[in-house]
Each structure stands twice: as structure tokens, then as C-alpha cells.
Design brief:
There is one protein chain. By secondary structure, this protein is an alpha/beta fold. Helices cover 30% and strands 21% of the residues. The chain is built from 5 helices and 6 strands, in the order E-H-H-E-E-H-E-H-E-H-E. It is globular, with a radius of gyration of 15 Å. The protein starts with a strand and ends in a 9-residue tail after the last strand. The mean pLDDT is 96.
């Protein structure tokens, strides 16, 4: 089983601006730890950035850049996207196919949008998925707090079995990346 790590939308305009998402700094620290382990184990790391034609996430703008404190290496893969689905109208699937990846480790922002959509799409495409249960985040919403949203997705995504491949939710401390 060949793995790849997807870090979704951990960008300045989404994590650095007030109000910040739940556990923003802790989430970035966990992601840095995971990416360091992945690189040491030879697991490819993908940084996926959401973008818009204009506005907060305009390609190349300061707010489009990686969030403060996030460690990105020149050897990491970069993917630009315009929808919550990291696969839709991107070259992500082609790159993963070239690398012969069959298993994805997913973390990032926002739990209920891009992380959820990408996790479901990955499973639908045949990838097994480890959702890093403490390395994805979002903002509080009117209907639920960010911690409740994270807990909900950590509990419900692994219960989706109809795609075939398994989705699991694993704390960052329990990931075994072989490094």
C-alpha cells in the first residue's frame, strides 16, 4: 500500500485571520509533525490550495499563501483547486496514479467542506483514507461548535462503507508513517 499525505487549504486567509479556526496553532503543529514524518518515510506530501479569481483567496495573494507556521518544502507537491473537491478539475488524481498511491492521509481545513468532500471523493475513487482526527479544523457555526463539527466528521466518515475502501479517523500521535 503506497501512501500520500494531503494537506488541504491551510492558508493564511483561512487560518491566520480573526476569528481563527478551532485549535488553529495546534492543528498546524500537528500537520508539521505529520509532514515531517511523511517526508522522512518517503511519503509524498501534497499541499492543496483553494483559490478564487478575485478576493480573499486570489491566486498568488498574501492570503492565498500557506498559513503562518506551516512548513512547506520545495519537494512537496502543490495542487490548486477551485471547489471543495480536491480532485475536481485538478491534476491530483493523475499525480497520485503516477505515484501509484492507493492510500491517502488527509488533514487540513475546513472539516465540513473541503476535508469532508475530498475524503468522500477519495474513497469513491478507490483510495483507503486515514483522516487525521486532530489535524483538521473549522470555525464555530450557528448550529454547532468547531469541536462538535470535528467530532461529528471523525465519527461519521468512518461509518461510510458503501464506497468499498475503508475510511478511518486516527489521532496524529497514533499515525505510523514508518519514518
Amino acid at each position: 500500500m503506497k501512501s500520500a499525505l494531503l494537506v488541504i487549504d491551510v492558508q493564511r486567509g483561512l487560518l491566520d485571520q480573526s476569528p481563527r479556526p478551532y485549535e488553529a496553532d495546534e492543528t498546524i503543529e500537528r500537520i508539521n509533525h505529520i509532514t515531517t514524518q511523511a517526508r522522512a518515510a518517503g511519503i509524498p506530501v501534497f499541499f492543496i490550495h483553494h483559490e478564487q479569481a478575485t478576493g480573499l483567496l486570489e491566486y498568488g495573494s498574501d492570503s492565498w499563501q500557506p498559513a503562518s507556521g506551516l512548513f512547506v518544502h520545495d519537494s512537496d507537491f502543490k495542487v490548486r483547486k477551485t471547489t471543495p473537491d480536491s480532485f475536481l478539475r485538478t491534476d491530483l488524481e493523475a499525480r497520485l496514479t503516477t505515484l501509484r498511491a492507493t492510500h491517502l492521509i488527509i488533514c487540513g481545513f475546513a472539516t465540513e467542506f473541503c476535508v469532508d468532500t475530498t475524503t468522500r471523493k477519495a474513497a469513491a475513487l478507490g483510495y483507503s483514507v486515514q483522516l487525521v482526527s486532530d489535524a483538521h479544523t473549522t470555525h464555530d457555526k450557528d448550529h454547532a461548535s468547531a469541536i462538535q463539527i470535528r467530532a461529528h466528521h471523525n465519527a461519521t466518515l468512518p461509518n461510510i462503507t458503501s464506497f468499498g475502501p475503508r475510511i478511518t479517523a486516527v489521532p496524529s500521535a497514533d499515525l505510523n508513517l514508518g519514518g
